[in-house]
Amino acid sequence: MTNANAGCKCQDELKEKFQELDQYLEGLHVDPKNPRRKDTLINALHHAQEIFGHLPEPVQIHIAKHYSIPHADVSGVISFYNYLTVEPKGKIQVNVCMGTACYVNGAEKILREFERVLEIKTGEVSPDGKFSIESLRCVGACGLAPVVTINHKVYGKVKVSDVKDIIESYLVEETDQTMEASNA
User: Could you tell me the pTM of the whole model?
Assistant: First the structure.
């Protein structure tokens, strides 16, 4: 595939993502004249982030236009909510809770082990785009401390010795999915 063809494929994928977002936004039935039109904005941003993986400026502007609100309003919501991000994340998102209960039970050591095994630092994405690591304030599962979430799956009472096995399970799962897709 030439670089020109790769560019076309990316443009097609981007166009499909915007079409998916538009379909979702249309389903919300936002009335641009209704003063309560922003009631569904957070849901729209969550959905857009699921589609695009993050919320880059063109997506923010697109949503702002749909709601007939300033881009600054959308940007403000994104910056307020920790879950929403303008930075790309890995396909497999590792989040280590650093709340008090997790921290005193060794979360910092677990975070460092994820960084060592994945060879990236907190806030970074692996060069292949598969993994990203973040630290969170609290996931609200203090009884399971220390807690790690990976793509919304919760792992409780994690030990440093568990980290490599956890990562390998995602690599095996991804390999299995790739093989299934190629056999289809």
Answer: 0.68
Dist. CA 57–CA 48, nearest whole Å? 12
Q: Which of 80, 108, 130 is the last residue of a domain?
A: 80
How does pLDDT run across 11-29, given as a tens digit for each residue? 888 999 999 999 999 999 9
The strands making up 131-136's β-sheet, listed across from edge to edge, are 131-136, 92-97, 148-150, 153-155
Task: Please check whether residues 75 and 112 belong to one and the same domain.
Answer: no
Examine the domain organization and report whether 155 and 73 are in the same domain.
no
Residue 132 and residue 87 in contact, taking contact as beta carbons nearer than 8 Å: no
Of the residues 80, 105, 130, which one is the last residue of a structural domain?
80
Over residues 36-89, the pLDDT tens digits come to 999 999 999 999 998 998 999 999 999 999 999 999 999 999 999 877 889 888
Range of the domain at 116: 92-183
Looking up tokens 């969170």 gives 136
One DSSP character per residue, 74-120 reads: HHHHHHH-TT--SS---SEEEEEE-SHHHHHTTHHHHHHHHHHHHT-
Amino acid, res. 149: T
